[in-house]
């Protein structure tokens, strides 16, 4: 199986291949699973953005909550039962996200880690079509998106495909399942702790 080591507390950073921006993520174990805090700055379509996100996952790497706040003041706070049923913080169901286990944030290289770690795919295995809760930074309105992951080399290389076959890329990952290079979109940069 394509398992990864137990996740230590750590930080990671990515830069976009084009334009100016940065994603900084701090992640590690939490009492009920894993906690991820990230900041993303950049621009899409010439419109600059700055966002902070807080993701919590259970021990099986299923997303249980997402808080997303923009410097513009917009925000969302959504929660999942881990089985594909979502609701707003106030309890209103979000049927538009039915079936989504993972989230995918526009402008984030990190969120590929969620299905990669959760699925534990064996070499050569394919996830089939996964439903994602995709959040674009221009609207902050989560929508369902369909993606496919295939393990090419267990623990180190995965293929990501949009289910409609409009985009495919091979993603090398480190020992924690964090993307090292996302060709045409992001590249990992060192986190200087000195």
What does this structure look like?
With 194 residues, the chain is mainly beta. The protein has one domain. It has one helix spanning 113-119, and strands at 10-16, 22-30, 33-44, 47-57, 63-70, 75-80, 86-88, 102-105, 130-135, 143-153, 157-162, 168-172, 181-182, 186-189. Strand 5 and strand 6 form a beta hairpin. The chain is globular. It starts with 9 loop residues before the first strand and ends in a 5-residue tail after the last strand.
Report how far the terminal alpha carbons are from each other.
36 Å
What is the total number of structural domains?
1
Helix fraction, binned, reads: under 10%
Largest sheet: 9 strands, antiparallel
N-to-C order of helices and strands: EEEEEEEEHEEEEEE
Any low-confidence stretches, pLDDT <50, length ≥5?
none
Pfam family, one: Glycolipid_bind
InterPro entries: Glycolipid-bd_prot_put
Attribute tags:
mainly beta, Glycolipid-bd_prot_put, 5-stranded mixed β-sheet, 9-stranded antiparallel β-sheet, 194 residues
Record the SSE blueprint.
Blueprint: E1 10-16, E2 22-30, E3 33-44, E4 47-57, E5 63-70, E6 75-80, E7 86-88, E8 102-105, H1 113-119, E9 130-135, E10 143-153, E11 157-162, E12 168-172, E13 181-182, E14 186-189
Parallel strand pairs: 8-9
Antiparallel strand pairs: 1-2, 1-14, 2-3, 3-4, 4-5, 5-6, 6-7, 9-10, 10-11, 11-12, 13-14
């Amino acid at each position: 199986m394509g398992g990864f080591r137990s996740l230590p507390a750590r930080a990671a950073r990515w830069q976009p291949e084009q334009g100016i921006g940065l994603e900084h993520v701090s992640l590690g174990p939490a009492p009920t699973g894993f906690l991820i805090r990230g900041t993303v700055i950049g621009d899409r379509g010439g419109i600059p953005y700055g966002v902070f996100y807080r993701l919590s996952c259970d021990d099986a790497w299923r997303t249980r909550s997402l808080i997303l706040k923009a410097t513009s003041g917009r925000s969302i706070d959504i929660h999942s039962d881990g089985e594909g049923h979502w609701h707003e913080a106030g309890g209103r169901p979000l049927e538009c996200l039915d079936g989504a286990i993972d989230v995918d944030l526009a402008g984030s290289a990190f969120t590929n880690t969620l299905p990669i770690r959760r699925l534990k795919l064996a070499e050569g295995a394919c996830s089939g079509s996964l439903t994602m809760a995709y959040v674009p930074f221009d609207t902050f309105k989560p929508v369902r998106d369909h993606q496919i992951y295939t393990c090419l080399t267990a623990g180190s290389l995965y293929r990501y495909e949009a289910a409609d076959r409009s985009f495919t890329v091979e993603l090398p990952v480190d020992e924690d399942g964090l993307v090292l290079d996302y060709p045409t979109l992001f590249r990992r940069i060192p986190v200087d702790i000195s």
